[in-house]
Amino acid sequence: MNGIVRTPLALVAGLALAAVEIAPAHALGLPLEARDASGEAAMAPQRRPSGGGQHARPPAGGGAHAAAARPAATRTASGRPPVRSSASTNVNHNVDRNRNVNRNVNRNVDVNVHGDYHGGYHDDWDDWDDHWHPVATMAVAATTAAVVGSIVRSVPPSCTTTVVNGISYSQCGNTWYQPQYSGSSVQYVVVNPPR
Amino acid sequence: MARSGFVGSALAAGAALLAVAVPIAAQAQSAATAADASSPIDPAAMKAMDGMSAFLLTLGSFRVTGEATTEQVLLTGQKIQFGGTFDILARQPDAFKIVTDSDRQSREMYYDGKTFTIFAPRVGYYASFAAASSIGLTIDKAKREYDIELPLADLFTWGTDQTLRSRVQEAMVVRPETIGERKCMHYAFRQEKVDWQIWIEDGARPLPCKMVITNKDDPAMPQYVAVLHWDTQVKPGPADLAFTPPAGAHRITMADIDGTAAASGKGEAQ
After folding, report:
1. For burial by CB atoms within 10 Å, which of A135, A149, B171, B225 has the most?
2. Backbone phi, then psi, for A137, in 5-degree steps?
């Protein structure tokens, strides 16, 4: 999911995600123009009924937690399964990887179970990279309510960067984001408009 | 330390003596045979790594470029592969510029002995932290405190970190192979969390031609594959390694590894 990460699972996209299992892409409520322009509807992967547990096989540790993930967590708002792990680009500096992975998996489980998680920490674990599919990103971001504290992977290209009191914001209409690095990814935290 | 870096630590004394006694890679087979046949670690493979590590340490500056593929594993177990390029320009002991580029993500990382900076050119945001005094320590800090993983970071730490050798559980010589137009010897190693393979160029310049890293944390075992091209004559100056924010670029904060607080105010030196 390139757009709103936590909040839509709880509020907006939660229903849509549930519907995904039986409905085509337009059930997500993506703007028609976005889908038409990009062929997004045609490109959307075929969805199959989620079996639940077997999707959630995590790396060592935390298995029991992740296996309990709700089926809704096996699809992002863009209709693609979230990423659970990735290759390591070096041999000897992945010592912390296990710890991170376990922590992140557990965080995600919390999100899925409680469903009302705002202001959460975003990581690569449950998401495509920010540049994976920019058009889908735009569609999701445009249709999702922005709750202060929620975090998105990317913002529409129409947003403008504004510096207020030395802090960089990305302003998208009435919604203000504060970009920050999380690892080597840029994420955007929804904030109150600066004064 | 250059010579003893990879050799020094964990190998049994007898095997170490044997490895030293056998002349270089061409003798790999005889070394393996002569060694304890039950040992999963072929001393010839370890010796090849020692030689490569020692040679890396002799390089004051280098540039290594190439193409890499990496994989992401979806929650379903399906693997998705992405390709990209890397360009690593380094000056020992305390400066580098690393550029990775792909359709998916583009990043630049800079280190000048004082500050580490990461820059995302497509979105125009950069962030910094106060770096450590050497490349190796800075790589460590980036990983441990900020969850930033530098590609092929091993190139900077092989030969200097005495503990790396003891992580190897199995090592073998595969066979001589050709990577592009280079003759390279293929080796394969196993560690607790990764299996990895390396092709080391024959001759007087024993540098890696290719690397494959298999992540065993996940049962789908995603792989990173890189083919490396070396320029060991390059003499980068400060301007070649420095980060100068382009017009329109903005400094942002960097979340710490727990994601609970932004590390604002760090690394103001940039």
Report:
1. B171
2. -55, -50
pLDDT over 90 at B255, yes or no? no
Per the CB < 8 Å rule, is A88 touching B259?
no
- pLDDT for A192 equals 92
pLDDT mean across residues, chain B:
85
Chain A residues touching B226 at Cβ < 8 A: 89
**Residue B93 and residue B111: Cα distance in Å, rounded?**
11
Size of interface A-B (CB pairs under 8 A): 180
Q: Supply the pLDDT for residue A46.
A: 40
Nearest to B177, CA basis, from B151, B202, B152, B145: B202
Residue of A nearest to B144 (CA): A96
pLDDT in tens, A22-34: 333 333 333 333 3
Which residues in chain A show pLDDT less than 70? 1-79, 93-145
pLDDT of amino acid B227: 98
Chain B: nearest CA to A159, how far in angstroms? 11
- Measure in Å the smallest separation between the Cα of A22 and chain B Cα atoms: 18
Q: Check: CB of residue B71 under 8 Å from CB of residue B222.
A: yes
- CA-nearest residue to B217 within chain A is A59
pLDDT class of B70 with cuts at 50, 70, 90 = very high
Task: Tell which wins on pLDDT, B54 or B270.
Answer: B54
Q: Of all residues in chain A, what percent are helix, strand and coil, respectively (each to 5)?
A: 35, 15, 45
The answer to whether B110 touches B116, Cβ cutoff 8 Å, is yes
Taking a C-beta distance cutoff of 8 angstroms, is the pair A125, A182 a contact? no
Dihedral in degrees, nearest 10, Cα atoms A97, A103, A107, A113: 120
Locate the domains of chain B by residue range: 61-255+265-270
Domain boundaries, chain A: 7-146
* Residue A88 to chain B, least CA–CA distance (Å): 6
Q: Please give the single-letter amino acid code of residue B261.
A: A
Higher per-residue pLDDT: A117 or B144: B144
- Of the options 2.50.20.10, 3.40.1410.10, 3.40.50.2000, 1.10.1040.10, the CATH number for the domain spanning B61-255+265-270: 2.50.20.10
Identify the residue with better confidence: B10 or B121: B121
Instruction: Compute the nearest-CA separation of B15 from chain A (Å).
Output: 24
Q: Give me the residue from A59, A92, A186 closest to B217, CB to CB.
A: A59
